[in-house]
Amino acid sequence: MAHLVHPQRALSTNPLKTSAPLGAAMAYLGIEGAIPLFHGAQGCTAFAMVHLVRHFRESIPLQTTAMNEVSAILGGGEQIEEAIENLRKRAKPKFIGIASTALVETRGEDVAGELREMLARRADFAGTAVVYAATPDFAGGLEDGWARAVEAIIAALVPAQAGPKIAGQVNLLAGSHLTPAEVEAVADMVRGFGLTPIVLPDLSTSLDGHLSDDWSGTSLGGTRLAEIARMGQSIATLAIGTAMRPAAEALANRGVPPQVFASLTGLKAVDAFVTALMQLSGRDAPATIKRDRARLADACLDAHFQIGGLRVALGADPDLGFALGTALTALGAEIVTAVTTSGLNPIAADIPAAEVILGDLGDLERGAATAKAHLILTHAHGRMAAERLHLPHVRAGFPVFDRLGAQDQCRVGYAGTRAFYYEIANAVLAHPHRPRPEDFGATPVAQEFDHASPPPSTH
Amino acid sequence: MAEALKTQIAGLLNEPACDTNRAKDEGSRRKGCTKQLTPGAAAGGCAFDGAKIALQPIVDVAHLVHAPLACEGNGWDNRGSASSGSEIYRTGFTTDLTELDIVMGNGEKKLYRAIREVIAEQAPAAVFVYATCVSALIGDDIEAVCKAATERLGTPVIPINAPGYVGSKNLGNKLAGAALYAHVIGTMEPAEPGLCDINIIGDFNLSGELWQVKPLLDRLGIRILGSISGDARYAQVAMAHRARVTMLVCSKALIGLARQLEDGYGIPFFEGSFYGISDTSAALRTLCMKLVERGAPADLIPRCEALIAQEEAATWAALASFRPRVAGKRVLLYTGGHKSWSVVSALQELGMEVVGTSVRKATEEDKGRVVEIMGDDSHMFDNMAPREMYALLREARADVLMSGGRSQFVALKARVPWVDVNQEKHEPYAGYMGMIGLLRAIDREMNNPMWADLRGPAPWEVAVQAPAPAPLRLASGSPADFEDC
Questions:
Q1: CB pair distance less than 8 Å for B459 and A274
Q2: Cis peptide leading into A7, omega within 30 of 0?
Q3: CB-CB neighbors (< 8 A) of B474 in chain A
Q4: Does B462 contact A275 at a Cβ distance shorter than 8 Å?
Q5: List of residues 6+ apart from B207 with CB closer than 8 A
Q6: Are A282 and B218 in contact (CB < 8 Å)?
Q7: Cβ of B125 and A451 within 8 Å?
Q8: Dihedral sign, CA of B171, B429, B258, B285?
């Protein structure tokens, strides 16, 4: 168990954390026909939208209640009503997910209460599901905002009294650390056992980067509302990431037994998931999964020469940091510096390092330099530190704006773990250390022996 | 095979300085030291490979392979000889002979043009031209081409006549040494020859191993004048005849060259090793003693002793920290002819058990040392078939295999830790600091948590603990009826 360090200082340098409302918006984008709506000043939305666009390279239908000076003082209930009305007119969303920002939470608005009152009054809003999650910027980060949004969706849209169980149907609660490709890979694994997953939220169909036939003012895919309504009838909930535990428990209150998987990266972690799927389905693992495991075992053998003894500086949200960190230490790497964003997720203390700093990229850079790290594993903003320290930088987490295909990165499952190990090993191999005499304290060869190149021959 | 080359090879194989050769009777001596290869059961490099390996570490030379593509195209850029200067040696140069070149007899002309182009483009200190099977078979006279090129182009162009079919890698080493002696050594003079100038023959500076030893020599005021061929400049080879002593490192193959330097220039040589603590100390001791015998200041010997005492103490202190992590572990060594016995004794000193060692290329003297160190000969074995080794490792009768790259995958597939100790390795293990590096590598490899994970059962190999729920009954055509993804 790592020692959690809360740096006693006022200044945060080069933030690692992304805001909670952005995480909520990302989760909402995994619902079909959705528009996330920030309840706050319009700048909150603009920054978040640019961030999301740079990462996914898609247009992001993120909207704002555009709080002004007057509503900031007198209350923003009307702003929400007006925003919903306008959004319904312009984009006909099936789902509007509201994420509050620091502004309204500082004011102390009873958004939930006002929303309840407003929705009761506005029967004409009935065709659009409206969900609200309290996600002030000042509490937690992306992972927490995402989790609060999923909990809000379950609270609002999964009936408390579930109908009869549907054989083979399982809930798959995808954590914020999973990329669209990863969500798809996990869902495919589940389907491989003959089970039918309801994925919440499902970025694999909305932010996977596909060219659609028509322009849409809402999300391009995602979990269907009808599926969400059936989640209480599933035989089990599989939650990926410890941050999803409260959401899984909310479904447990509706009669669905929960299982939480802290990580799906690494041989043992995937083994645990496969074991659960075997037990749930009563089936043997399919041949593709058995083959993928044998291939991962072989990849471990090949990659452990680079990863064994590798000193890694890791900066990520708790679930991602735990998943990638444990996968690397399982191959003999050492996490010499670990920085994470939020202490709200208990897994933060299980990131396999002596101490885990709740800090920023400044901590990561200092730690990497002091501990003589060999590699930096964090999101794209770590690039400046990596350049300054002349270290290879593997990009993981949010945002990744300086590489293409962030949504396609798949580091889960046997195949994804294999790809991750190759990715790390190749990053090490791409920074070869050419030995020099001075590395060993040897003097250079006498100049006398060196061949002075004559002018090029004229033959 | 050309008559001259045949005679040269016969001469090379009858090496008077080689103990193994001297111990043979007349008949087997005439047969030479290379065993006939067995078709279908041979693995190892050819004479060209051996010549190239021995010479390529000369860093400011353009190594030009006169051959169709495979000889250089399939073999280049695969060894870790490090350079502190020029990078020309790493560039792959070949004449890439085509069918037309061979049929039309254009080989010599193409070779000359290639030599001219490489000199014009790269301005190397010299060009080494390697004959190969095809260019030798079609009768290209590379010696004549090299002679003409040297005269006309003003850069030394050296023929290395070791086509693959003449024999093994070991023979290629010898032919390379002979070429250096015939064409390079003695062609340049050092500005200031010193009483502490030495030759090191047979170290190829793999991953910088020469530099692990060099600081020790630096501190004693000993200069590596001639190096054959780790991090060597062409000039250093050309001046090797002015050294005072030659140390022959871990190599019987180049013993002929060392002996020729002794016969021709009066430079005494000795065989030594920089692998392991006691061998490193012994090598330094012998080196200083021989230099003093040849007129170096007598205080070299006490200074050497002081250095050894200091370094040994520091090294053992550093190694002690590994003891708790390696003690009691069983090592299987499969290294061929390596003079690694002092490594073995250091491992034993740290509480490791050497459960077996191969002696397939070892001399009788080496075998004697195995018995001496390990008590009896029950742990010695000759060749081991991969399947046999796999079985032995799978039964977990060893905790770690130390070997060359060829048996790497036998160990890995048996889920047994493996440490590379042959020439292809990526980490330097020479001298005192190399021993610490080796232990670090053993520790890191053997104690990697991955092994336990890989040896554990897969989920489908475990008896299900909790009673499995009854298999699902799914309606046919259900979306859940999903085949393997």
A1: yes
A2: no
A3: 167-168, 194
A4: yes
A5: A435, B80, B82, B425, B426, B427, B428
A6: no
A7: yes
A8: negative
Q: Quote the CA–CA distance of A14 and A156 in Å, as a whole number.
A: 37
Give the amino acid at B446.
Answer: M
Residue from A363, A355, A413 nearest A190 by CA: A413
Domain span at residue A420 reads 291-429
| CB of A5 closer than 8 Å to CB of A356 | yes
Closest CA of chain A from B333, distance in Å: 19
List chain B pLDDT tens, one digit each, 485 residues.
Answer: 678 888 888 888 888 877 777 777 777 766 666 566 777 766 678 999 999 999 999 999 999 999 999 999 888 888 789 999 999 999 999 999 999 999 999 999 999 999 999 999 999 999 999 999 999 999 999 999 999 999 999 999 999 999 999 988 889 999 999 999 999 999 999 999 999 999 999 999 999 999 999 999 999 999 999 999 899 999 999 999 999 999 998 667 899 999 999 999 999 999 998 988 988 999 999 999 999 999 999 999 999 999 999 999 999 999 999 999 999 999 888 876 555 666 777 888 888 988 887 776 666 766 777 777 777 766 777 777 788 888 878 776 789 998 877 788 888 888 899 998 876 678 899 999 999 999 999 999 999 999 999 999 999 998 655 544 444 443 343 333 333 22
Same domain, B17 and B160: yes
Q: Is A142 helix (H, G, I), strand (E, B) or coil?
A: helix
- Neighbouring residues of A351: CB distance < 8 A, sequence distance ≥ 6: A2, A314, A318, A321, A322, A325, A335, A338, A340
CB atoms near residue B262 (< 10 Å): 15
The amino acid that residue A201 corresponds to is P
In a domain, A64, yes or no: yes
- Both tokens of residue B9? 């090879």
Q: What is the CATH number of the domain that holds B209?
A: 3.40.50.12380
Number of domain units in chain B: 3
- The pTM (predicted TM-score) of the whole model is 0.91
Measured CA to CA, the distance from residue A13 to residue B52 in angstroms comes to 54
Integer Cα distance of B339 and B95 in angstroms: 38
Q: Are B328 and B311 contained in the same domain?
A: no
Min Cα–Cα distance to chain B from A161, Å: 24
Q: Say yes or no for a CB contact (<8 Å) between A436 and B208.
A: yes
Full domain range(s) for residue B179: 3-23+44-183
Asked whether residue A275 falls in the same domain as residue A295, the answer is no
* CA-based nearest residue to A345, from A322, A378, A379: A322
The answer to whether residue B447 is domain-embedded is yes
- Residues in chain B with CB shorter than 8 Å from the CB of A454 are 123, 154-155
CB pair distance less than 8 Å for A330 and B485: no
Residue A301, Ramachandran bin (φ over 0: left; ψ between -120 and 50: alpha; else beta): alpha
From chain B, the residues in CB contact with A447 under 8 A are none
Cβ neighbours of B413 in A, within 8 Å? 301
Instruction: Pick left, alpha or beta for residue B46 (phi over 0 → left; psi -120 to 50 → alpha; otherwise beta).
Output: beta
Q: Tell me, what DSSP letter sits at residue B232? A: B
Long-range contacts from B105-110, C-beta under 8 angstroms, 24+ separation: B105/B138, B107/B66, B107/B135, B107/B138, B107/B140, B108/B140, B108/B141, B108/B142, B108/B144, B108/B145
Q: Give the number of other Cβ atoms within 10 Å of residue A450's Cβ.
A: 19
Of A267, A437, A446, the CB nearest to B214: A437
Do A280 and B478 lie within an 8 Å CB cutoff? no
- Residue B334 sits in the same domain as residue B250: no
From the candidates A298, A300, A457, which should be mutated to test the interface with B, based on the most B CB atoms within 10 A? A457
A295 and A425 fall within a common domain: yes
* Residue in this structure with the two tokens 């001297």, named with its chain if needed: B22
